[in-house]
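FIELD: query
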Amino acid sequence: MKRPTGLTVTAVLMLLTAVGTILFWATFFADLEAQRNGILASRCDAWFAWEMSFPLADLWVALTAILGAVGLWRMRPAGLLFGLVSGGAMVFLGLMDVLFFLENGLYLPLTGEVAVELFIHVWTVAFGLSAITCMWNHRAPLCR
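FIELD: result
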C-alpha cells in the first residue's frame, strides 16, 4: 500500500523533532552553568527549575516520535498509536511552556535565547496539532 504524502511528511518531521529535542538537551546539559546564569534565568528566578522539569517528558516525546515515525513509515498501527501520543504530548508541553512564558513576561524583549524558546513553543504546539490531524485523517490504512 502506498503511503499518503501527508503521513510521509509527518513521519519525517516527527523524526526531525525527536532529533532536535535530543540535540537541545545535549546542548543544554553541555553547559549547565551558562543555562543557570543565562538571560531567561536572570529574568525569572523560577525559570531554571522550570526548565529542569522537562527532560524526562521531552525524552518521552522524542521516544514516542521515533516510534511513531517508524510506524508511520511502515504503515503500521503502532505508527498511529505512538504518533498520536507524541503529538498530544507535544501540544501539552508546548502549551505549558507558552503559559509559563506569558505569565512571567519572558517573551519580551526578544533575544536570541528567547527566539529559540519561542520557535520551540510554536513548533511543538503547531506541529503537534498538525500531526494529530494528519494521522487521524489517514487512520484507516494504518488500522489494517
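FIELD: remark
The CA atoms of residues 75 and 141 lie 7 Å apart.
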